[in-house]
C-alpha cells in the first residue's frame, strides 16, 4: 500500500467498488494489470468507451511503474459517485532510466495520453516510491 490515503478513505466511508492488485514491477506484468482492470470494470458495468479509456490509462501508468519501479507496483481502482480513481504506485525513485531500446520519438507519450483521457492527474513522490493518480468520469 502507499504512504498516502486511498480514495475511499478520503471520501470518508467504505466504497463497494474498489480493488487492489500488487505485482512485481516488471514489464511482463503490465498485461496482467490491464486485463485485471478490463475484467473488473466490465463486472462493475462501466460503459465500453469509458472502460477502454480507463484500461489505456492503466496500461500507460503500469508500464511506467514497471520501467521505473524497483520491486513492486500496485494498481488500485475505486469507482465512486461516477468517478473512477486509478492509482498506480511503484517502489522506484523519480529518476528516469535511459532506455536505449526505445527510439526517442517513441518515448514519453504515455503521460500525455493519460492527461488527455483523465479529468485530473496527480503525481506524488512518497517515502516508498511514486504514486500516480488519474480520475476518469464514468457512468456505471
Question: Would you mind describing this structure in some detail?
Answer:
The radius of gyration is 14 Å and the shape is globular. With 140 residues, the chain is α+β, with helices and mostly antiparallel strands. Strands 1-2-3-5-4 form a 5-stranded antiparallel beta sheet, with helices on one face. The model is unreliable at 1-11 and 102-106 (pLDDT under 50). The protein is built from 4 helices and 5 strands, in the order αβααββαββ. A hairpin with a 2-residue loop joins strand 2 (72-80) and strand 3 (83-90).
Mind sketching the topology for me?
Layout (H helix, E strand, L loop, with lengths): L6 H4 L7 E7 L5 H14 L4 H21 L3 E9 L2 E8 L19 H8 L2 E6 L4 E8 L3
Antiparallel strand pairs: 1-2, 2-3, 3-5, 4-5
Helix pairs in contact: 2-3, 3-4
**Gyration radius over CA:** 14 Å
Number of strands: 5
Helix content: 25-40%
Q: Structural class per helix/strand content? A: alpha+beta
Termini gap: 26 Å
DSSP summary: helix tally? 4
DSSP strand (E) fraction?
Answer: 25-35%
Mean pLDDT figure: 82
Poorly predicted sequence stretches spanning 5 or more consecutive residues: 1-11, 102-106
Please state the overall shape, judged from the principal axes of the Cα atoms. globular
Order of helices and strands: HEHHEEHEE
The major sheet is characterized as: 5 strands, antiparallel
Strand order in space, largest sheet:
1-2-3-5-4
Q: Which terms would index this structure?
A:
single chain; 140 residues; alpha+beta; five-stranded antiparallel beta sheet; globular; disordered N terminus
